[in-house]
Amino acid sequence: MTEALMNQAAETSTDATQVPSRPENSQLSPAEVEAAVYEIADRSREAARSMSRANRALKDKGLRAIGSALLERKADILAANAKDVEAGRANGTSAALLDRLTLNDARIESLAGALENLAGLPDPVGNVVRGQTLPNGLRLRQVNVPMGVVAAIYEARPNVTVDIAGLALKSGNAVILRGGTAAAATNAALIRVLRDALAAVGLPADAVQTVDQYGREGANVLMRARGRVDVLIPRGGRELIQTVVNNSSVPVIETGEGNVHIFVDESASEDMAVEILLNAKTQRPSVCNTVETLLVHSGSTVLPAVAAALSKAGVRLHADARIRAALPADVETVPATDEDWATEYMDLDLAVAMVDSLDDAVKHIRTWTSGHTEAILTNDLANAERFIAEIDSAAVIVNASTRFTDGGELGLGAEVGISTQKLHARGPMGLTELTTTKWIVQGEGQVRG
Mean of the pLDDT values across residues 219-238? Predict the structure, then answer.
């Protein structure tokens, strides 16, 4: 580590390891909140400069230190999480959101494991995207460099606190987090662990900060902090994402809700369809890569078995008239409406429609998709290739569960979110997606003629 980096770490590793708290009864004016958030952003900018100079060994040491600290301080984290979960139940939070909010031993161990995996991945910083030597002798390289200050606004997802921080740190960035009221106690405990671990290995604690203590107004200021924050990533439901997209002056990478489709064509086997649909809908229904709409070809014979298996697993089927007519009387359904085709349930509900062709399936998906993930189950290679070519979503899957649209599952270590836009990043966003590029031009006295 350079002497400058050691000095910066020393400056930020004393009081900075303590997460700022806001007295419960304090009333700060909008101007005071703005000043406080801007100060946080300015400290993040300084920390980002240090992180951009940190080598891979030091960053990986920080990630492993965070993983170890999560396990060592698991009891404190779980105690804080229990308070958030209890408050959520008292406030009538849905089962799906409670599931996202809840941490347990296995989930904390998974977070620590993800950090270890992240440490084992190549460092994207300095990677040469392309390069050449021009006829005039100028040597060109386009290389990956950190974004700088990355901010994230999300809700009821304490795992995101660790995932985003880990990815930001490995890619040489500083991060500012707004995790929402529902997970306030859990996020505060996690951020203390993160900052303490960074300071312990000589990295700036201010590489991880939060504005949770300033509530919704703090989030609003973060959205206006253009020039102090380089990129803002919202992660949550449609309302949160659209609020950030429509109100932020900071550049936004838009992550989308997961109105995910699976199309079962007439050639798909029954065993594969049953197994994949059960996994895609019931393994963890509260997450964005869970299937929300099932389209079944009218010539397929798998519908009774698939519907029976889903119904037995507790899935409520919102079915169109043709599906209801084709099912046995003992399979309960409710009539589907247009609202169902547009809904990300994040629960044990599934919209089901019958289509007469691949063209009809593609048309339905294009009408209702959020652009996240779509899958086809088929034994027809031509149908698979057409589906891949004609579906314009961030992820297209053939003969596998939609649950694989996930940074960890796709070998990225973790993910910041799943981008449904087409600029810069699309699909699960890992380390490379938290970098930008710069051109390095080296010459020997050349001038332009």
Answer: 92
